[in-house]
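Could you join me in thinking about how sequence relates to backbone shape in a protein? We need material for that, and I hope you will provide a protein of your own picking. Label the sequence line and the structure token line clearly, so we can match residues to local backbone shapes. Would you write everything just below, so we can both look at the same thing?
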Amino acid sequence: MDSPGSSESGTGLRVDTTGCAVDDLVYCGAVQVAADSAEPWDGIVERAVTEGWLGVEALSGLPGSIADVTLANASAYGQSVSDAVVSVRTWDRSVDRQRTFAAVECGFGPGTSRFTERLADGSRRYDVREVTLLLKQGDLTAPIRDDALAARLGITSGQRVPLARVRRAVLGD
């Protein structure tokens, strides 16, 4: 049974909103989203925008699963997957056991993470099983700092806009 404030989406997502009131400007007003590795990334972004969870809206339209974008630490328009990651649960093939890494242990860098490490036979050392994200709640984005995105939105850098507007601009709608 889920705890109060927790919900199962039926699609490989667990959402926890316990403990804090909603406040657009602090992490206390946040949701924790645990996603199965095979969950389509853009489906997570779409739900985040619909629910008013900010932090990944500019990453709309990225292909692949949450595991794919986490492995590559995908980024676009000033946002990176690593900005929202709390932890990554893996199967470590080198020791044949499960390992969970906190965000600071994930070795995120531009276009990479520790999860791209290879074994001597060329196979990936880590099989990503679940990624947990922490997303603030609110109706507006953080201040837009990416000049290309600001231009697409018709705003000046530093302004905030509704989440859905960013998603539409990124997807070209």
Remarks:
- The chain has a mean pLDDT of 88.
- The longest helix spans residues 41-51.
